[in-house]
Structure formats: C-alpha cells, structure tokens
Amino acid sequence: MPNLLLCLLLAAMMAPAQNLMPWPARIAHRDGRLELGTFRVALAGFRDTTLERAAARLVERLARRTGVPFPVGVAADASEATLVIECPQAGAAESYTLDVTPRQARIEAGAPAGALHGMETFLQLVEPGPGGFSIPAVRIEDSPRFGWRGLLIDASRHWMPAEVIKRNLDGMAAVKLNVLHWHLSDDQGFRVESKRYPRLQEMGSDGNYYTQAEVREIVAYARDRGIRVVPEFDMPGHTSAWFPGYPELAAFPGPYRIERGWGVIDACMDPTREEVYTFLDGFIGEMSELFPGEYFHIGGDEVNGKQWDASERIRAFKREHGMKSNDDLQAWFNQRLEKIVSSHGKKMVGWDEVAHPDLPKNVLVQSWRGQKALAELARQGYEGLLSFGYYLDLAQPASFHYANDPLGGPGASLSPAEQTRILGGEACLWAELVTPENVDGRIWPRLAAIAERLWSPVEVTDLSSMYRRMAVLSRNLDWLGLTHNRAYPTMLARIAGGHDPEPLRLLAGILEPVKNYTRHRGRAYRQDTPLNRLVDAVAPESLEARAFGEDAGAMLAGKPGIEKSVVARLRAWRDNDARLRAVLQDSFLGADVLPLSADVATLAAAGLDAIAYLASGKPAPAAWISQQKAVLKRAAAPRAELLIMIVPAIGSLVDRAAKPGGLRLEPTGAAPPATTPGRRRPPEGLRRH
Ligand code: ACM
Questions:
Q1: If you measure from the C-alpha of residue 367 to the centroid of ligand 1, how many angstroms do you get, rounded to a whole number?
Q2: Is residue 31 classed exposed, middle or buried when 0-12, 13-18 and 19+ CB atoms within 10 A define those classes?
Q3: Which of 152, 233, 302, 392 has most ligand 1 atoms within 8 Å of its beta carbon, as the pocket-test mutant?
Q4: Model confidence over 445-471: pLDDT tens digits?
Q5: Does the annotation mark 214 as catalytic?
Q6: Residue 603: exposed, middle, or buried by beta-carbon count in 10 A (0-12, 13-18, 19+)?
Q7: pLDDT tens across 26-72, in order?
Q8: Residue whose CA is closest, atom 3 of ligand 1?
C-alpha cells in the first residue's frame, strides 16, 4: 500500500471516531460533535416497514445504551430530527454514507440494507462526554468488500433454542454480517418441523426442533436486520437423525437411532433408489416455502462410503452406470438434487465435496478445505465461499481468523474474473462442545474480527487497533442481549460452589481451551456429556494473556513505565494458588484445574525472578535458567483440556534474563536475587516451593 494511504488510514484510526467495527471503507473527521440531548429519527424518501421498524429499534437501542428515555417512534418532520435516514428505493445494495455535523446526522443509502448498516455505524459512534452523550462529526462512505458475510450456527449437535438464534442475529447485524447459515440437520438431531414428513422431527429431535411458526418468525427477524437465512440439510451423509423416522431413505435397512457420539458416521442415504428422490422433492419443496431465500444448502460433506461399499445392490448400480468411485456416485446424487433444488426456485450450495466434473457450475461451493481448494474451485468456474480458517469452535485467536482472507494465499493469483467468483466467507460454529449457555462466548467477540475481514478494505490489518475495537464492541454487545460476558462469571460461580469465585476468575482469565479437535482425542464426548467444566467456561482466546504478553514484550523492548503493572499481575498470579485451593477443594468440577493453578504460581514466580535478575544488571545463573526451562516445558502441556497462555511471555522474560546487560527498570519492589556463586539465595518466587 502507498505510504500516504497508510498514513491517512492510521491517522483516521487514531481520530475520535475510533470504536467502529468493522472499520469503514472511508472516513473523514470534522470538527465538533452532535450532542444527543434529545433524539429524534426521521425517514426521508422511500419508506417501508423494514426501515420504519429499524428506525424504531434504533431509538430503543439508543435509550437502552444511554439510559435516557428518548421518545419512541419515528418523527414526521425531517428538519427537526437528530438523524435523518434517506433511502430512495427498495433493493439489496449495502453501501451507505453517514454524514454527521454538529447540527444533524444523515444516512443516505441506495437501499434499506445500506441504511441498516448506517444505523449500526451511527450507534457505534455514541459515547458519553463531559456534557452528555454525543457522536463525533464525521463523514463515512462505506460499502462491503465481500457480498457474502455469514455465520453458520449448528443447531443439530446441541439444540439451540430460538432465542439463541435471535440474539445472535442482533449481534450479526451489529457487525454488518448478512447471512445466517442455519445447520438444521445432522446425525445428532433433525431440528425443523416438517408437516409432510412429521416423523423427521418426531423421531429425530428428542422434541427439540423449530416449529414452522418459529422458523417464519426467525426468518422475518433476520430479514428485518438485513440478514438472509440459508438453511442447510446435510445429505447424503450426516443423516442418522432422518432415519429413525424414515429408514427407507438409508443405504442399509437399520433400525436407526439418533446418533449420540461425534465424528464421521457411516449412516448414509441410498442414492440408487427413486423413492429417495421422490421424498427429497417433497421435503425440499416444503422447506423451500418455509425458507423463502434464494439459496438452499445440501451439505454434501464427509461421506465415508462404508454403507455404499457394503451394499451388493449399490455396488451393482455403480457397475451398471460405469461409476468408478463413490465420488462418482455422490456426484450422481448431487446432480439429481440440483435439479430438485432448482425446480423449487433455489440455488444449491454445498461443501467442497460436491464439486465434480459432472456437476453444473451454478452450484455455490463452500470451502472447509481452504484457500487453495477455493481458488481451484473459482478457476473451474464455481462461485465459492471460504470457511476454512473461520471455524470458531476450534478455539483459535481472533488474530488467526483476521489474517485469513478469502482472496489470500493462492486466491491472490486468480484473475479478476475468477476473484469475483469468491463471494466472501462464513464463520462456522459447530456445536459438538457448545450449549446454549456458552454458545455466545464461543462466537463473540471473535466473530467481529471475521466480520471486519469480510467487510473492510484489504489494507485494514492493524492487530492492536482490531483488538482494541473488538473489546469495545464486546462490551456494547451486552446491550443487545448477547450473553458471552454474562454467562462466563455464572459458569465460574457454578464451579466455585458457595465460594467467592474471584481466585478462579483470576486463573481462568489466562487459560484457553486446547485447540482444534484435541478435546475429542482425550475424552469420548457425547451429546449428553455435561459441558460445565472450566474448559467449557473459559474464553477461546485469553485477552488478558494477550495483553500481558504485549506489556512484557514492550517492557523488554525498553518501553518505560510498564513494569509496575507487569509485576503486579505476576504477584497476583503467584499468590492466587493458595486462595484457589480453598475454593476448589470441595468441587468435583474444579479439582483437575489445581495442577494448572500450581504451575501458574511457579511461572509467575519465574517471571518475577527474571525481572529481578534483569534489574540487577547481571545475567541469571545457568542452573536457574535450566530449572525455569523445565517449569516452562511442564506448564506448556495441556491439562484438564486447558492451556496456560502466559507461558510464551514468561519464556521471553526468562530468555532475556539469561543474557548479559540487564534492563533499566523502575524500582518495582522485587527483591534482587543474590547471585553469589555457590550460595545463591533463592530468588523471590522460588522461596515458597
Ligand atoms: C465440515 O467441516 N465437514 C463441513
């Protein structure tokens, strides 16, 4: 990027309107602020009920945010209004401008979708100042980089009631996402009421399914917020829950039960039987009316083919049709399915595995395999979406998702025409280890980093800015009813029983769950396994450990004035273990956390010693260094499916203490270690052990 542009961008990010997320395409700051002593919103130009409801919601949300009882409703006279929303026509265009002067704010958008985004931006600008609530004078011209910005919520593996979906739709709208991909059926649950095939929900859901009335309500709720709903009914694999009610769809006779374990399951539809397509035509027809959107997702992933291989009839069918592999058989199934989906007026979406030379290119492919696979699909002529790198259930940090660009890696070498086939991306929240209690904490606030990657200009990559804005957004989501901040202390309190959970909070704040699919390797989780332990409560990314790592790094880089807070945190962690033992001694939910707590105390002591060595100007002795290396190695190993996230920062303190030269530090009160060879007084932190 040219330097001038970078300077402008950085200047903009430093300026008063600094809490926006996703960051807008263009922003120019002006002098002054618009005071919100009173607040009236008016609609100019095109009016429709979506805009009217959105404007009314904006007033309600502003009242909730500020605690000021602004008059409800929409004003008739634009000249008197604090905020005027002007939208000439209906449509789906998402761009908008927001012009704020000290006299009035004005949103102009080509269509309601853009106006909705402008309203979210307006709300993000509201701040309390010395004279009351106000927003800075700015001009924002904004439009998305990608047209498809989604979140998949898996409501099959664990049931997610309607209120979970609704509050997350509110959160999605706040960060300008526009697609809810609703994963509605899988081996572990069939979650929608079918009136035509009622045994689907009666025998496949344990009674936990969305009624058709609920589906309609949620689809309307999403539409009101500029979000389209793409239902996914995964097939021909991931279909165990269809078969208790309709075993005749399966490649093997059964009987079948709802699957309770996780992983790739053998149960699979029989693509060789006409009755299967008759059933699917009826089912997809019914669902196409229930879900009025343009797209219909048929899944298509992870067919292991075991049932097909084991069936003499299916093997014979493959031979008769000259099929060489199960991929060919699945492509046959998908071609039939594509015709059915098209006949009901929908565009078919599927995961990577659906791509096949025999399949028409009008199928949208969603890639869980990665940027390379996606780029190859675009080259072949498919439109595609990236989801690899956006799996929120794998407990990766926001920075990891933020660096994952749909047009990154091999995507960068696509021709402009091929690049336009990459429509955007979707975050995925698979729910094997997620419940309605911790779902918001698994999604938020990291989803905001993905939303920004999909909305903002490609140059917007500054990590510290992103993390700072994400923290602000995370707090503001509380006003929308998201539960990620509220559920966490409640889950810690459950583990702590009747004790004060504060020592547990101090430890939990620097822990993270193990990454990727590691949890499944250590324990045979099932659908009914309680998800109530510390690993289920802690945030997927420890922002406290991240902040500590940054401060420790800055201190080592010579930045003045940080060591007091670094030392204060280390002391708190060092002294926490004894307090935590008292909390957890009676709790079966917390006992497996105690070894981590002991290691945190030892690590913190090592960090304090390292700082004391650095302050002394003399390198730490070799024996001490090797002792700390052993501590670091032990502390880096997962226990109770948790990781201690301050290990790397302590490691760099220890490494630096081994080097000569010390560090100019303000007095911290840490006892200087005695370094007399032979009779070394153990440094501060080690004395307790
Ligand atoms: C997938 O992760 N199998 C879509």
A1: 9
A2: exposed
A3: 302
A4: 999 999 999 999 999 999 999 999 999
A5: no
A6: buried
A7: 999 999 999 999 999 999 987 789 999 999 999 999 999 999 999 88
A8: 301
